[in-house]
Structure to design on (504 residues):
């Protein structure tokens, strides 16, 4: 059995309870024991690094230091925004011990930062530490028939120097996981476009425009639903979808699943356990496709032999 | 005569370079960042122009532009910048300098963004964690826009999307102390 440190993030007790719950279900099935950081605090999100550089490092640093008190050498984080703040802090502290010392003075009681624990997003942990084969091995009711657009957002794979994971332009890790569950991952150009989450309360117009484009492209890809691995992406695309539809006079009807909800379903957990009732866009339509056979587009007929063309020329 | 290199002098360019860890002079104005940036159409000046303005020492204009407040730190631009400039870090540097000097745009949008961040940080100071419902309510009260997002409220609350309470951090004292110390560090940085 593997062991990993868990940083749930504030939304795990709020808007993304269903993410937290299904991450736990999935990890248990995959034989991973998660140990929550005792008395963790908020990572500071966008606000801290917008307003106050020292605080933007101090808040995540406290969590990094607390994580070093547990014996595990890796920590995993479901929220992409928390992940980004903790990883940025880790990378900058490891690169610049002077800075680490300085920021450490804000949390002397917690102890000194050593840089011992690796920080990975939940997606990265599933992909690198658990692996596709182990995931595939646990699938007992494949979700085949579903056509999905995997949306990574801007923080899971960018900037490359910080995340050191997958491609910043066209990542494939989540696509590969949903295919391992039996679904079809669609070609989707807006995988890493930003949804505008940091303005979700302060400037909704920006969010409607940015998230609107993502929904539009997802629909165009032929997907029946979107898959995400971040609570901010989920609430923007799901909760604001109605407003977007109204503003741009369109109809998308695209439910937004957490990756772990689909994994848990494929691992045989009943649908009722997924807290789908919390979703604003109803999920049943998309789930009804499970079991359908997806017809692959016919391969273009073989080009007629060139010989004939030559004879025509004659 | 206009001299383009302000390097080595006590200039805005130097201050931004130092804070961001990038050299803005490296920018050769290709505009790739602009075509990549999802919010460039909301900005007074898109990232490429901000770079040039910094080079030209247009400090006031750069700080008074809403651009740096609208940057989402999505890093789409820096991933593609052929000169490998950390554009969001440059945006952030300009913004932090502006906050330090208390000199920034007073448009409603920027005010709202600022207010949001202040309320958020306040909340963390009090509870150690984010209390989403209170956050939304306080933002609406303080910006005098009481009914913003109210149409979402019944759905979100009924569905349990946004919970009514928060579990705060046990060592609230440690967080308060951290805030005080961080504030001191910020003062030293000035
Ligand atoms: S992409 Fe880089 S080099 Fe090109 S204009 Fe933007 S900052 Fe300058
Ligand atoms: S990091 Fe900022 S400037 Fe760069 S693309 Fe994103 S929003 Fe635009």
């Amino acid at each position: 059995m593997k062991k990993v440190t868990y940083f749930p993030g504030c939304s795990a007790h709020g808007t993304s309870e269903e993410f937290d719950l299904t991450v736990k279900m999935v990890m248990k099935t995959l034989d991973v024991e998660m140990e929550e950081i005792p008395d963790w605090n908020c990572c500071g999100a966008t606000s801290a690094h917008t307003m106050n550089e020292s605080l933007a490092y101090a808040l995540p640093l406290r969590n990094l230091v607390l994580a070093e008190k547990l014996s595990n050498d890796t920590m995993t984080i479901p929220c992409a925004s928390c992940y980004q703040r903790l990883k940025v802090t880790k990378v900058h502290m490891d690169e610049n011990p002077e800075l680490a010392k300085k920021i450490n003075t804000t949390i002397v009681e917690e102890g000194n930062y050593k840089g011992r624990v690796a920080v990975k997003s939940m997606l990265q942990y599933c992909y690198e530490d658990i692996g596709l084969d182990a995931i595939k091995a646990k699938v007992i009711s494949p979700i085949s028939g579903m056509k999905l657009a995997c949306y990574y957002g801007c923080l899971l794979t960018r900037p490359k120097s910080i995340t050191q994971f997958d491609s910043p332009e066209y990542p494939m890790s989540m696509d590969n996981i949903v295919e391992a569950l039996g679904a079809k991952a669609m070609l989707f150009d807006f995988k890493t476009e930003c949804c505008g989450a940091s303005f979700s309360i302060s400037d909704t117009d920006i969010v409607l425009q940015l998230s609107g484009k993502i929904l539009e492209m997802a629909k165009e890809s032929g997907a029946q639903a979107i898959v995400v691995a971040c609570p901010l992406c989920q609430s923007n695309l799901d909760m604001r979808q109605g407003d977007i539809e109204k503003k741009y006079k369109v109809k998308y009807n695209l439910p937004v699943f957490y990756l772990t909800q689909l994994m848990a379903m494929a691992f045989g957990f009943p649908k009722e356990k997924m807290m789908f009732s919390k979703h604003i866009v109803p999920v049943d339509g998309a789930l009804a496709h499970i079991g359908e056979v997806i017809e692959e587009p016919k391969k273009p007929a073989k080009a007629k032999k060139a010989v004939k063309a030559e004879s025509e020329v004659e | 005569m206009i001299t383009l290199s302000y390097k080595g002098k006590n200039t805005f360019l130097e201050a931004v370079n130092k804070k961001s860890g990038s050299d803005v002079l490296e920018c050769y104005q290709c505009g790739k960042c602009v075509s990549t940036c999802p919010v460039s159409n909301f900005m007074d000046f898109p990232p490429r122009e901000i770079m040039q303005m910094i080079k030209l020492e247009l400090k006031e204009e750069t700080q008074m532009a809403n651009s740096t407040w609208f940057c989402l730190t999505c890093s789409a631009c820096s991933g593609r910048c052929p000169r490998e400039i950390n554009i969001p870090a440059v945006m952030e540097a300009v913004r932090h300098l502006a906050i330090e000097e208390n000199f920034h745009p007073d448009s409603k949008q920027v005010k709202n963004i600022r207010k949001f961040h202040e309320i958020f940080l306040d909340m963390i100071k009090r509870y150690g964690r984010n209390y989403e419902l209170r956050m939304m309510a306080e933002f609406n009260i303080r910006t005098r826009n009481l009914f913003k997002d109210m149409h979402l409220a019944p759905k979100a609350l009924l569905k349990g999307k946004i919970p009514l309470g928060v579990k705060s951090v046990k060592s609230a004292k440690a967080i308060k102390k951290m805030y005080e110390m961080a504030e001191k560090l910020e003062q030293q940085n000035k």
